[in-house]
Design brief:
The complex is a heterodimer of chains A (about 210) and B (about 550).
Chain A lengths: L15 H32 L1 H8 L4 H26 L3 H31 L7 H5 L2 H37 L8 H26 L2
Helix pairs in contact in A: 1-6, 1-7, 2-6, 3-4, 3-7, 4-6, 6-7
Chain B lengths: L17 H5 L4 H29 L10 H37 L7 H20 L18 H4 L4 H28 L12 H33 L12 H35 L6 H14 L15 H29 L8 H24 L1 H7 L3 H31 L1 E2 L2 H28 L13 H31 L1 E2 L45
Antiparallel strand pairs in B: 1-2
Helix pairs in contact in B: 2-3, 2-4, 2-15, 3-4, 3-6, 3-7, 3-8, 3-13, 4-6, 6-7, 7-8, 7-9, 8-9, 8-10, 8-11, 8-13, 9-10, 10-11, 11-13, 11-14, 13-14, 14-15
Classes of the chains: A mainly alpha (about 210), B mainly alpha (about 550).
Chain lengths: ~210, ~550
């Protein structure tokens, strides 16, 4: 029997469009995951707007601003690294990806100090000072830790994803002709950035 | 159809050993892994159901403590919803037949597909782990309503994590199917030449993708509340339990269509094949799937008419709920119109499809009664709802699942089952099913509340009828499954196309080779159900 027959539309073919479509669909699910949290935030902000405002003064706006700048810059570097790869400049592409990862690390370090200060003040859910806060402020800090924590997790995942791309470029499985993995990592990283763009004003800036 | 007698390697024999199954990238094997797990969990869930019916045989305590009863119905719900019904048709028949129906050799992301199965297995371990770890399985009901789910001492955390992981598995399956349908259709097959099962999977996948994350995050919030002892949903510290209900049903109502739509797809496959006639209103059926998926997002509030909701919100949710009935009945009319003047070949799969229509009609109409604002006040949280949901899920999706199993059995295993036994099992199952659940509808109207291990003496008669029905149902299920099990091992060899179907899966061998097709499949001219020999021509 003839075993040389292969379907032209095989699922085992490399299909850049399919993987990009898959990534976009996955991003929708991520948006909805955070969407649930935004919904809860909206409801409780409406119910406890005074308390939310008071609690938001306890955050460090400068640290938040610094992190926002870091993330936006890293979004730019990852986009540049994709273009560099497409144009065939592998070394520049890898460097730009490392810069993105460094920015991610920087973000996490700042976050560590920010969270650390809150822990010192006993503002983490379940701690002594937290228990004495009025209801609205407790909800605020609960949401703050939940949402920025989940976002932080996404920063870590995004950075690891980019490391896989770096490995792929070095090993030759991600090339100027076959760059969809790098593009997908970029898309994911933009999502991480985008969610922060919403978290930042919601927690730090709104008056 | 030509019968190729040349030897070839089936996908069963392409590789050997248990590792080749657990790490398989073949969609057919993944589908079978799902099938065996799902049937197992179905039997576990059914046993729990039997326990409940036995407890309810007499008023008062019969065999289990009230607390145990609460745990039993919760575990029954969690297993049946998350481990059986939601993955049943998409993960088993979707995985096996979507690529075959589209004329390709696998789904778009074979590795992701395997990963979905692993997630399913991990989720299942968590769900069953509640039996062993902590203070026993959750006793909250499968809805995990706050604040009770935050306060109870039972192992809610683990059940909720199970549901979260299973939800993730379901998301990835949906994602995979959407990309598969967009990218891997055989050349020349447009969206409107796809078989209707593919259309219904497409609609289902969008729901899986866009609704499941919401429950994911909601369940994470429950876990966080339990772990850190603070509440978003606990009113004692300013949380809002009704908000939890909203968040829960934003997913869980669309999830009802994750369960129902693929079943409708199965019926749309079976009926034209056994009527040997073009499906009536192809586009109407295809687009009504999308319409159900779309409207289904906006009806979640009808679970909460008694939870506290403003008047206008209640009206709107009620009207939207009624709207879902329109695309659903479009399908029913089209199926019946397809049968009209067809050359009907009454065989086991068709019987299941017809039973689906019958049961789903009762399930759907009782659903409308629930959706009516005034009636719902009386019927909310009574056995009427239990009867309704079992008519839709078991009578609808369950029957379609078994119909699909009998329809595609010869393709999956290359064997034919004993039709007499299968038809007998079908008939007793249909009778047993109705004896089991119709009394629940009556009990609900009489006012018997759901989720209690005890009831007032005036409800005794119908409860006993229902319990007798459960014995008939389970015995028929055992006969049905044993019959198929025996056939898979020792059945007569089935031809490649025993039913005379013309969708692409019938053009390959039974069981299919690893690559599904060894020559280019031919799309039937003039649409996927354009039967060349159809007698009627009006």
């Amino acid at each position: 029997m003839d075993h040389t027959f292969h379907l032209p539309n095989s699922g085992h073919n490399f299909d850049a469009k399919a993987s990009k479509m898959g990534m976009w669909l996955f991003l929708y699910t991520e948006l909805l995951l955070f969407g649930g949290l935004f919904l809860v935030y909206m409801v409780y902000r409406e119910l406890n707007s005074e308390a939310f405002l008071l609690a938001s003064f306890k955050l460090n706006v400068w640290m938040g601003t610094f992190n926002t700048v870091l993330l936006i810059t890293s979004s730019m570097t990852i986009a540049m690294s994709i273009t560099a790869l497409q144009k065939g400049n592998k070394i520049l592409s890898i460097r730009l990806m490392w810069i993105t990862i460094l920015a991610a690390l920087g973000f996490l370090i700042v976050k560590y100090f920010e969270w650390g200060a809150k822990f010192e003040h006993g503002l983490f859910p379940g701690m002594e000072h937290y228990q004495q806060l009025p209801t609205g402020e407790r909800l605020y800090f609960y949401l703050y830790f939940f949402m920025t924590g989940l976002h932080g997790l996404h920063v870590i995942v995004g950075a690891v994803f980019i490391m896989f791309v770096i490995r792929g470029v070095k090993k030759g499985s991600v090339t100027p002709e076959r760059y969809s993995l790098s593009e997908n990592a970029g898309l994911y990283w933009h999502l991480v950035d985008l969610i922060w763009i919403y978290l930042f004003p919601l927690f730090y800036l709104i008056h | 159809m030509t019968v190729d007698t040349l030897p070839y390697t089936t996908f069963y024999k392409a590789k050997k050993g248990i590792i080749s199954w657990l790490f398989t990238l073949d969609h057919k094997r993944v589908a079978l892994l799902y099938l065996y797990s799902i049937i197992t969990f179905f039997l576990v869930g059914a046993s729990l159901g039997i326990l409940m019916r036995l407890e309810l045989f007499h008023p008062g305590k019969d065999i289990v403590e009230p607390h145990t009863y609460n745990q039993i119905f919760t575990l029954h719900g969690v297993i049946m919803i998350f481990l059986f019904i939601i993955p049943s048709i998409p993960a088993v028949f979707g995985n096996f037949f979507l690529p075959l129906l589209l004329g390709t050799d696998d789904v778009a992301f074979p590795r992701l597909n395997l990963f979905s199965f692993w997630l399913y297995a991990i989720g299942a371990l968590f769900a069953l782990g509640t039996l062993v770890f902590g203070d026993g399985p959750a006793d909250t009901g499968w809805t995990f309503y706050a604040p009770y789910s935050v306060r109870t001492g039972t192992n809610v955390t683990m059940s909720v994590v199970a549901a979260f992981v299973l939800g993730f598995s379901s998301i990835l399956t949906g994602l995979n199917f959407i990309v598969t349908i967009h990218r891997l259709r055989t050349p020349g097959m447009g969206f409107n030449q796809m078989p209707l099962f593919a259309w219904s999977l497409y609609a289902t996948s969008w729901i899986q993708l866009l609704a499941t994350p919401v429950i994911g995050i909601t369940l994470l919030m429950i876990v966080a509340e339990r772990v850190f002892g603070v509440g978003l949903f606990d009113p004692s510290i300013g949380g809002d339990p009704v908000l939890y209900q909203h968040m829960f049903w934003i997913y869980s109502h669309p999830a009802v269509y994750i369960m129902a739509l693929p079943a409708m797809g199965i019926v749309s496959e079976i009926i034209p094949t056994f009527a040997q006639r073009t499906i009536f209103g192809y586009k109407a059926i295809a687009y009504s799937s999308m319409a159900i998926a779309f409207i289904g997002y906006f009806v979640w509030g009808h679970h909460m008419f008694t939870s506290g909701m403003s008047g206008p919100a209640a009206y709107i949710f009620s009207i939207l709920t009624f709207l879902v009935a329109i695309p659903t009945s479009i399908k029913v009319f089209n199926w019946i119109a397809t049968l009209y003047k067809g050359s009907i070949n009454i065989d086991t799969p068709l019987l299941f499809a017809l039973a689906f229509i019958f049961n789903f009609l009762i399930g759907g109409l009782t659903g409308l009664v629930n959706g009516a604002l005034a009636a719902d006040i009386h019927l909310h949280d009574t056995y009427f709802v239990v009867g309704h949901l079992h008519y839709v899920m078991f009578g609808g999706t369950g029957f379609a699942f078994f119909g699909a199993l009998h329809y595609w059995f010869p393709k999956i295993w290359g064997k034919m089952y004993n039709k007499k036994v299968a038809n007998t099992a079908f008939a007793t199952l249909l009778i047993g099913f109705n004896i089991l659940y119709f009394p629940m509808i009556i009990l609900g109207i009489m006012g018997m509340p759901r989720r209690y291990y005890d009831y007032l003496p005036e409800f005794t008669f119908w409860n006993q009828v229902s319990t007798v029905g459960s014995w008939i149902t389970v015995s028929s299920l055992i006969v049905l499954i044993v019959n198929l099990f025996v056939a898979a091992r020792k059945g007569k060899k089935a031809p490649d196309n025993p039913w005379g179907g013309i969708t692409l899966e019938w053009q390959t061998k039974s069981p299919p080779p690893l690559e599904n097709f060894d020559k280019m499949p031919k799309i039937p001219e003039g649409g996927p159900y354009n039967y060349p020999n159809a007698k009627s021509s009006n």
